[in-house]
Amino acid sequence: MTKEYKTITEIAGPLIFLEKTEPVGYGELVHINLPDGTTKRGQVLDTSADVVAVQVFEGTGGLNEESGVVFSGETIKLPVSKDMLGRILSGAGEPLDGGPRIVPEDRVDVNGASMNPYSRMPPEDFIQTGISTIDGTNTLVRGQKLPIFSGSGLPHNEIALQIARQAKVPGSDEPFAVVFAAMGITNEEAQYFMEDFEKTGALERAVVFLNLADDPAVERIITPRMALTAAEYLAYEHDMHVLVILTDITNYCEALRQMGAAREEVPGRRGYPGYMYTDLASLYERAGVIKGLKGSVTQFSILTMPGDDITHPIPDLSGYITEGQIVVSRELHMKGIYPPINVLPSLSRLMNSGIGEGKTRDDHKAVSDQMYAGYAEGRDLRGLVAIVGKEALSERDQKILEFADLFEDRFVRQGRDEDRSIEDTLQVGWDILSELPVALLTRIDNKYIEKYHPAHKSN
Amino acid sequence: MKGEIYRVAGPVVTIMGIKPKMYDVVHVGHEGLMGEVIRIEGDKATVQVYEDTSGIKPGEPVVNTGMSLSVELGPGLLESIYDGIQRPLKVLQEKMGDFINRGVTANGLDREKLWEFKPTVSSGDSVTGGQTIGVVQETMNVEHKIMVPPTVSGTVEEIKSGKFKVDETICVLADGTEISMMQKWPVRMPRPVEKKFIPKRPLITGQRILDGLFPVAKGGTAAIPGPFGSGKTVTQQQLAKWSDTDIVVYIGCGERGNEMADVLNEFPELQDPKTGRPLMERTVLIANTSNMPVAAREASVYTGITIAEYYRDMGYDVSLMADSSSRWAEAMREISSRLEEMPGEEGYPAYLSARLSEFYERAGAVKSLAAEEGSITVIGAVSPPGGDFSEPVTQNTLRIVKVFWALDAKLAQRRHFPSIDWLTSYSLYTQGLSDWFSENVAPDWVPLRDNAMDLLQQESELQEIVQLVGSDALPEDQQLVLEICRMLREYFLQQNAFHPVDTYCPFDKQYKLLKAISKYSDMAQAALESGIPMKDILSVESKDELAKVKYEEEFDSALNVVMEKMDKEFAALGGN
To answer: How far is A190 from chain B (nearest CA, A)?
Structure first.
């Protein structure tokens, strides 16, 4: 029989402290029975022979010293099953769609274990998202974690949805699933996602975890872990390729800070806890491919940078863990360009292993490098033009300036439903590069110029 | 004597009932999780546990091993891939599958494998600490010297020859001391040496900007700080692959799993450019990714450098890469905050600076106890948050290291790789190494390099003017400087790590490339003085052709073709 303790001595924010318990395990799941008959759940944060600290997921509202506390004797586990596909669950894993409870095939610890680096397969399968600025210049591969760094008021949700809709591995029809975890997003945003999922039929192959803005902040700390546990289960037990969309990591970090403050921890940068790096790593690192297994977990998180500041601790620490980032730019958005992805600060660290002959095309890297270089220089020249005027530029510089405009207008800009194949993307690349004199294409091997340059092709 | 757990709070566990020494390794809980004593207070002691503590309860048993955290040193280290506390990842995978669970122990060295031991001393010889008593061919090109542990000396009574396991006795001293091929050494204690030298030989990396402009000496220390996305990891991997050291120790400390997987996959396939054998045969990898336990991350750096010291004592040149020391410092911070210690700057513990300097001080060119000359070159990556070099880890590191390779995200965005900023980087070894360069590369190497540095410096000043008035407004000779600098940047400094030829550039080729650019510069200067218009000088075709010479497999002949053409073109311009 599990014992119910009525020995709460202190309630502070989301934490409760108990005395005179039997030994309780660190990280154990806790049920709290309120005097009004409702039940809340929590987790052990600190346990000693004298006092036990529990963080309560649903908040401590309504709790008093009369409340009974039951320790479950095990850590938090998520019941998992293939039937989770098509279901909408709460941030704590309870069904929200009115459907039956999940009949578990297994129950898995939500904290997961760290993957043995020796068992990891370096990711190298190209995922085509149909968006040129990603496929062409910041290629995503299976098993990668590539977040979108965005700002408030920018169309990151649309980009994420477009990717969820269009993402595929060309020439492959292996089972594919989406796990969507909302952390502290508004009801409206959540509706937007759900509608799109339903409209496109994506919901059938999706598992949705919703922790909305008015749900308790503490719950946000386990929501992504629930989602990743479901994703890992589908990937490694059911051989599916899973795309995990976590939104919004910033809300998650706010919850983490809130917890840290409640625990009276020594704060780190900007009040975020000193272990935020390790904590974020325990989420982001749950992406990858395992040698000998068919499935994979790819992460596409959304993160809104407070004040568009990329050096803020949240994007900064994320950038150190994830394999690159897609940066959404306010400037491009203001110019009316969709998707407003600024390729210069964007990066995909695994790009080189996913592109080239046999994967995308042999000239991919050269084309991408050349466009990057041209665009970077063109943007610098814009600053110069603002001072000296366009006429003062040399002919060469004027060409490059024009290239930067072309790049934004033709390569970056595309329709919300425009699904460009990688060939289309590279073709657009060559089309705009051909506006530059061949002598300026120093990053492209002559053999590619002969093979793909429009001027050569027509000969 | 057995104790029990009093309190569990994440990786920090308080125990009571036993009296351990500081840094003793203890096993906590029913599963026997490994941990290290980091604070003693009355009858309680605080332990940092190297594994996940979920579900561990107060009252569970604690056993003290009485030993501090040690690594096993002996044949079999090379080609191994360890976690932060020297557990072989391959054995962990065999024991528990693709995910790392806890409570599993694994020996650092394989106890079953037989090694052919050839003695180099005979009975009756007197031996002292650090002296070689025999050799084992560990891999095709690395001869592993079996040394007397540093604290042991005496007269050899019996010495064996033949095939043995690492823990079998191969030598007995007169006082009864038994010596096996394996010795243990506590990781937090530097291995003793006879003396340290001032490093005089360069570490040759085959990376033009490093060897050419900012060389590090064998036995020196270097730091690579870089904001994320600036190509730090690639630069470090290039160093691990191409450095001309005998042994490479690579510590992936708190970094990405996929990147580590890439290293683990790629290294075994890489060839050592010197011997043609797999590079793994001279490499030890330590992989502790960011989601592995934080305490093991803290230990991983010490595990790595102790292994490096062991090979150094055999007389080898070792290079050690720590990627990244910021993650290590963060692990210290995390543990310190769990201990509720008074924080120093930005929450880092007050002993951050002391720990960093202790670590870097374990680098050096030395004469070992047995009078062998060896070295450890430490290359530490630093990941300053937000690219802010004024943060404590970067600042404390810069106070210690002699070489600074400043990676710059802006250069990376322009696809200028390696994106090392030539204006803010520095090397304090250039003076000390110039004799070596004059002797081994070319007598005019040092002036060539100084001249290139000088031009690049001028360029940055000129660029400021160009930003205001445009390049056409500059006098012609300054326009020429800009052009030469563009050539220096694009033809010399830029190097493609993924190009089969360009990834490694021998010194001879570096010299010839720089010489070629300098030759163009001289000829252009002369032509300009004799009144040839700038436009004509700039449109010399061979100049643009020089851009691609570095990618040619037949570099010398390709360069000759271009240089001959350049001579002809300048001759055709006339004026001379």
So the answer is: 29
